[in-house]
Design brief:
Nucleotidyltransferase, domain 5; 5-stranded mixed β-sheet; binds 5'-O-[(R)-(carboxyoxy)(hydroxy)phosphoryl]adenosine; 2 domains; 42% helix; binds zinc ion; single chain; 341 residues; 11 helices
Length: 341
């Protein structure tokens, strides 16, 4: 059985062909980073229009790489939640059209569950049940996952996502978009102890996050409160590196700390981490050290499966096996994952 999976939740247009044995036959990711770089963040309308341009070539290329013809497909899966509305609609419209034309089932994919499923795909191990952290440009959430399809939200950001904070702080420091890799690189020659920054919510027993205050704290190190924005000083390379390192250390402390708290509070012994920020080197190293110290199993996919891709849409196989197929009334659910208080 061969499935085509589509991913257009944010600013990557991606398609993959996967078998029911989870073999990846072909995968394509078209990044829009260059289009959004000048704005320092994803512009939803530009993202949606770029998906329209790219979705068919990307599908075509994925099929070609998989040496698969359209009429050999047995199902089409698409991420329909959560994400940017305009972006989600493009993937959903493409998936529905293919299902009608080919007379094959339509499968809905939850993008956050897919990020966690990437841990299973990458390791080949049964990672469930687990605590999962999804940390990206749009989300920072902790889940208790009983199975690949059963998620209970334990905590989430109450304002910015961690990746969004990386992107905004990079912009403050004059570093390019996407901010995460740029900050990681700049931080390599910086001193993480040079600037005192807060670790928001780290000492709270709850599992929610907050990053907008941290971003403001960085801003105030550059432009003190009350000083006009247009008086922004030109930062020298070492100061940029020191601010990048101090900011990154603060985010990593919070993320690693909350993962450990979630594991302790639930008594669970497996941690899966996914999403673009999981590509961060110091974050991965600190998680590995925590796993060795606390004795939990840790799964983090390789970088290409951390950032958005269609391979993780293989979770559609789990839905198909559970008999969960959709009809053509399937809608998008952009939603932002927030903890209900
Ligand atoms: O999962 P993803 O590709 O898309 C969303 O669903 O948002 O994540 C993109 C986010 C961006 O905010 C980017 O700055 C961040 O992941 N990111 C990183 C790194 N690589 C990507 N953040 C920190 N360190 C990195 N190395
Ligand atoms: Zn994502």
């Amino acid at each position: 059985m061969k499935i085509l999976t589509l991913e257009t939740t944010c600013d990557e247009t991606a398609a993959a062909v996967i078998t029911d044995r989870l073999d990846v036959l072909g995968s394509v990711v078209a990044s829009q980073d260059k289009l959004h770089q000048v704005f320092g963040g994803v512009v939803p309308e530009i993202a949606a229009r770029a998906h329209v341009e790219r979705i068919l070539p990307v599908i075509h290329q994925a099929l070609e790489r998989a040496n698969t013809k359209l009429d050999e497909l047995d199902a089409v899966a698409v991420a329909n939640t959560p994400g940017l509305a305009g972006s989600l609609l493009v993937g959903l419209a493409a998936a529905k059209s293919l299902c009608v034309a080919l007379d094959v089932p339509l499968v809905a994919v939850n993008h956050l569950q897919a990020h966690v499923y990437a841990c299973k795909l990458a390791s080949g191990e049964d990672v469930f049940p687990c605590i999962a952290m999804v940390v990206s440009g749009g989300h920072t959430c902790l889940f208790r996952c009983t199975t690949p399809l059963e998620f209970e939200l334990l905590g989430a950001t109450i304002d910015d996502a961690a990746g969004e904070a990386f992107d905004k702080v990079a912009s403050l420091l004059g570093l390019p978009y996407p901010g995460g890799p740029a900050i990681q690189q700049a931080a390599e020659s910086g001193d993480a102890k040079s600037f005192q920054l807060p670790r928001p919510k780290l000492r709270d027993a709850g599992l929610d996050f907050s990053f907008s205050g941290l971003k403001t704290a960085v801003r105030y190190k550059i432009i003190p409160p009350g000083v006009a924005e247009d008086a922004t000083p030109q930062l020298d390379t070492q100061t940029v590196a020191n601010l990048a390192a101090s900011f990154q250390a603060a985010v990593v402390d919070v993320l690693v700390g909350k993962c450990r708290q979630a594991l302790k509070q639930t008594g669970m012994s497996t941690l899966c981490v996914g999403g673009g920020v999981a590509a961060n080197g110091p974050f991965r190293q600190r998680l590995e050290a925590a796993a060795a110290e606390d004795g939990f199993r840790l799964f983090i996919p390789p970088l290409s499966l951390c950032t958005d891709n269609a391979v993780m849409g293989a979770i559609a196989i789990e839905r198909l096996n559970a008999g969960l197929v959709e009809d053509l009334s399937l809608d998008i659910a952009p939603g932002v994952v927030r903890k209900k208080s």
